[in-house]
Structure formats: C-alpha cells, structure tokens
C-alpha cells in the first residue's frame, strides 16, 4: 500500500501509554478531524491534487462531472495541458464558471454566469458537467446548459499528455487553458471523467501529489 488512509484516527495507545497527537514531532498532509463532516475532499486554497502521473489524453472527446462547494469567487477547478497549446481547463472567475478548450487552432470558452441574485459561491453544493465532443463544447451547472460556437471546426483533438491538476497547479507547470492562478478553496467530490464507454472515477487519496488537499474530509461548515 503506497497511499495514506483516508480516515480520522484518535485515542491511540502503545503499551498502555496514550500517544499525544496534539504535539507531534513532525506532521505531513494531516489535518484536524471535523465535528461535522461531509463527503468530499477539502482544498485549503493554497495547493492542488495531481492525478494520472503518466499523463491524461483528452483527444477528441471527454465528459467531466464533479460537484463543488465554495465561498470564494476565484479558483482553478481542473486543468489538463500539453507542452504545445492543446489543453482543457475548468475554473471559477469572478463567480462565473469557465470551460476552456484548445484543440490546437485556438482557445474557445463556454461561460456559465449565474442569473440575478443566484450565486455559485454560496457554500452550497453545485453540480458541474463539462462536455467536449470533437470541436463542440458545452457546460452544464445545476442542470442549466450553456453552448458556445467554435469557429475552428477542422480542429477536433486536444492532444494532451500532462497530468490532471485539480484545484490548482504548481508554479512551474504550464496550463494553456486556465487564466487563473488562484487555487480552489472549498470542497470537491464525485470527480468522474468519461471517454466513450470508459468511465473513470478519481479518488483524491490516490493522487501522486497532494498539497493543501485533505481527501475524504470536508468540514460541515467553512473553516
């Protein structure tokens, strides 16, 4: 087993002596356990999760679904890029959700803007679905669908080969379809990427790099 246990551990004794977990000698990627906890993974606004070390190939089609909860109006949700311009990106900018795709010919963006007094940054769960099929892209938030026109109809494949970065990305990593450098603060859950008949559900506790991310531990209220 190479990944940590996604759980809370308390009241540990060795040879009848209780360990003091309040003042450890060293600590790494361990957070407090919350009194009230929800399903989800907590992002503290300073880091990211890196998935698929060998690189994720978006190519012609991908369908991304996830749920998010935040009170921040800016934050990276997800990015997959290449060394060239091909990439996809999902981000929250000024309270809007943006889905960017570049198949090589130029970036196109589907934007979801909440109407009236509605806000996506209210600390409540919102469901997101981002779909790319060849040159067509769409974005659906809480059942509300947004399409966008793509003038680059001949370019259909996003030839990405980098890891999937969720909630942010390292300073030395290039992301061609993200405009924000702000790491996400809040909770994410149920991240699923589907290509054709292949559906992949991602467990953040199995990420190969986690910084400021606490899998399977989402505080019941914003901390």
TrEMBL record:
Cited PROSITE patterns: LAM_G_DOMAIN
One Pfam family matching this protein: Laminin_G_1
Top-level taxon of origin: Eukaryota
Domain Laminin G: 38-218
Gene3D superfamilies documented for this protein: 2.60.120.200
InterPro entries: ConA-like_dom_sf (IPR013320), Laminin_G (IPR001791), Neurexin-related_CASP (IPR050372)
SUPFAM superfamilies on file: Concanavalin A-like lectins/glucanases (SSF49899)
Protein name per its UniProtKB record: LAMA1 protein
């Amino acid at each position: 087993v190479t990944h940590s246990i996604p759980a809370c551990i308390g009241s540990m004794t060795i040879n009848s002596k209780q360990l003091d977990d309040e003042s450890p000698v060293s600590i790494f990627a361990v957070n407090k356990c919350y009194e009230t906890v929800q399903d989800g993974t907590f992002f503290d606004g300073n880091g990211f999760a890196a998935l698929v070390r060998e690189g994720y190939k978006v190519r012609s089609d991908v369908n991304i679904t996830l749920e998010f909860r935040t009170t921040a109006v800016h934050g990276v949700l997800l990015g997959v890029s290449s060394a060239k311009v091909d990439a996809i990106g999902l981000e929250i900018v000024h309270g809007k959700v943006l889905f960017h795709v570049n198949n090589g010919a130029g970036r196109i963006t589907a934007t979801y803007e909440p109407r009236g007094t509605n806000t996506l940054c209210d600390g409540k769960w919102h469901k997101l679905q981002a779909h790319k099929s060849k040159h067509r892209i769409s974005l659906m938030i809480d059942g509300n669908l947004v399409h966008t026109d793509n003038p680059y109809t001949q370019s259909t494949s996003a030839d990405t080969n980098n890891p999937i970065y969720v909630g942010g990305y390292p300073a030395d990593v290039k992301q061609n379809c993200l405009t924000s450098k702000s790491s996400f603060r809040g909770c994410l859950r149920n991240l699923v990427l589907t290509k054709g008949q292949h559906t992949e559900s991602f467990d953040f506790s199995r990420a190969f790099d986690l910084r400021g991310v606490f899998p399977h531990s989402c505080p019941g209220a914003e901390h």
